[in-house]
Amino acid sequence: MDRIKFDAWVGIFVALGLIALMGLAMKVGNLTSNDIKTTYQITANFENIGGLKPRAPVKSAGVVVGRVDSIVFDTTIYEAIVTLSIDERYVFPKDTFANIYTAGLLGEQYIGLEAGGDSINLQANDKITQTQDAVVLEKLISQFLYNKASEEEEK
Amino acid sequence: MNEDAIVSISNLAFGYADRIIHKRINMDFHRGKVVAIMGGSGCGKTTILRLIGGQIKPHGGEVRVDGKIVHQQSQKGIYDLRRKMGMLFQHGALFSDLSVYENVAFPIREHTNLNESVIKDLVLMKLNAVGLRGAYKLMPTELSGGMARRVALARAIALDPDIIMYDEPFAGLDPISMGVICDLIRSLNDALGATSIIVTHDVAETFAFADYIYFLADGVVAAQGSPDELKKSKLPFVKQFIHSQKDGPVPFHMEANKYADDLGLRQ
Amino acid sequence: MILFFEKIGFSLRQKITRLGAAARLFFSILTYTPENFKRFRLTIKEIYATGVLSLVIIVVSAFFVGMVLGLQGYYTLQKYGSSEAIGVLVALALVRELGPVVTALLFAGRAGTAITAEIGLMKATEQLSAMEMMAVSPIARIVAPRFWAGIITMPLLASIFSMVGVLGGYVVAVPLIGVDEGAFWSQMQANVDFQFDIVNGFIKSLVFGIACTIIALFEGYDAPPTAEGVSRATTRTVVTSSLAVLGLDFILTSFMLTV
């Protein structure tokens, strides 16, 4: 009888633990919301990536379609090479545009893909040629001040 | 070395870090006999049992069990030797989370693959031998000291050992329980054809039923012989021990400074 | 002065000796592992003792910790007008840190002390010696099952703690304070990463499980066989386990955040 009691309680306990773990994965974590399992990789060069980090989301029309895999600096062209892992379900035309956006004014940065009109799609290990750099706030401000100053001079 | 001895100890030396306990001990334990090891408290009687069981290693000399030198055995070899031994610990050392029945069944379950009904018969037989078949359902905490020791004895003989070791089997028992244990030691020894080694300092009980007695003192065997021989012994130590005299070769006072000095009475 | 340094040296040497002894215990447990898995029933009994009996304290404290996180988080986040992020805050705090760490601390207090006291008493009453004399290794029969039970139990308890804590945070945030339910869960899901947060938290609890169980087992096995010895060993189990958990947490976190 003791044995049955132990077994039953331990069984309940282990089941509870596993349910909790599943709950964490499904309800709390993002395992279901974007279960990107099989991906293909494409690269994009940027002159300036701003504050982009590996594992940042890649979005198209606001939908997460992949993640930033790695960011390296290429010393032959002095540009950042960003590798993106894109969900296999989504294909993009060859002339897709890659921008680095900021979520909100001070939020995290992500890559936005804007599909072009080409009939040929991007394949694995292809490169996105049209990119737009991150907006760097300091640059904008200095540009703004500079413009203001030159306007004053003209007057 | 005696061929007939199932356990023989020769030139044994042992000590802990800063204290030498055994200097040079020779003993033989013959098959079928009840042998007692006697001596004052702290003279290393129990240590001898642990040396026989291979729980500690001697610093010199050797202990042979069944012809094999204990401290040279591998872990497995020691375990094989221990299966021939049963040991009754001073306070029984029953497993407190198991019932009396499970305690006695423990060595049987660990070392055999017998099915439950055979185990049950064996356990009840052993419990019957110590007169506690009726207590099989109880937990160790529900037993009196004497009963716990009898259960522990049933557990020690569960696998019909060749050697049964008793560590202070009479300590802290009332006269009735003491008599019961005495009878049990003798009758189990004869029924199983085993050899019993008893560590004790209860003179009267031991002299009544032991076949042979070793006296330990100062790390050596001070005297040995059958109870009758020892009673006639002229050795002062043995006399002091047997007649429980306060002072003798074993002094009442521990070595110390002069009493007057310690009290600050010196001029 | 010399005496002072001598004392330091002596205690250091003692500590290192004990560490070595604990490592030896650990390896001898591992050598008995195949034998232990053949008789898993012993481990199941220990999972009952360490896991099932710790369930109440884990669930209750997790619920309160979650509720407190919800309250505190709300009043801080509200100042920045982002009270919907409360779900993220509660979930991340629990999954990454509080779940594994608080569970381990409670485990050390509840199950660790029980293990130490039990083994210490078995030693004091010569039960371990008796087992050895019956040609049964106490490490195989007593120590190893408790070790594996601890390792299996801890991650499960930590998962339960995190999940119940999130529910506690939910109870405070949504029905009591009135944060939007959809925002609560969706913000949480968008910001809690399975691999980065949940798997790493799981790894932490696994490591804490090994550390706490080994410490409890060693203290019990090494305890002087007296009443005082066992009580001191029990205290040491709590102190050493807690320090080990917090120290290991820092090391693990720094690894996980840099890699």
Structure description:
The complex is a heterotrimer of chains A (155), B (267) and C (259). With 155 residues, chain A is of the alpha/beta class. Chain A is built from two helices and eight strands. Chain A has an eight-stranded mixed beta sheet with strand order 7-1-4-3-2-6-5-8, with no helix packed on it. In chain A, strand 5 (97-102) and strand 6 form a beta hairpin. The termini of chain A are far apart. The relative contact order of chain A is 0.17. Chain B is built from ten helices and ten strands. Chain B has a domain at 1-84 and 197-267: Rossmann fold (3-Layer(aba) Sandwich). The mean pLDDT of chain B is 83. Chain B is an alpha/beta fold and 267 residues long. The radius of gyration of chain B is 20 Å and the shape is globular. The termini of chain B are far apart. Chain C is 89% helix and 0% strand. Chain C has helices spanning 2-31, 33-38, 40-50, 55-79, 86-124, 127-133, 138-177, 181-191, 194-222, 227-258. Chains in contact: A-C, B-C. Chains B and C meet through helix 2 and helix 3 of B and helix 6 of C.
Q: What are its keywords?
A:
A: 155 residues, alpha/beta, 2 helices, 29% helix, elongated, C: 259 residues
Largest sheet of chain A at a glance? 8 strands, mixed
Query: Which of globular, elongated, flat, extended, rod-shaped describes the shape of chain A?
Result: elongated
Question: What's the number of structural domains of chain C?
Answer: 1
The assigned structural class of chain A equals alpha/beta
- The structure class of chain C reads mainly alpha
Number of domains of chain A: 2
The counted number of beta strands of chain C is 0
Determine the most extensive contact between two protein chains.
Answer: A-C, 25 and 31 residues
Percent helix range of chain C: over 70%
| Gyration radius of chain C, in Å | 21 Å
Largest sheet of chain C: none
* Multimerization status: heterotrimer
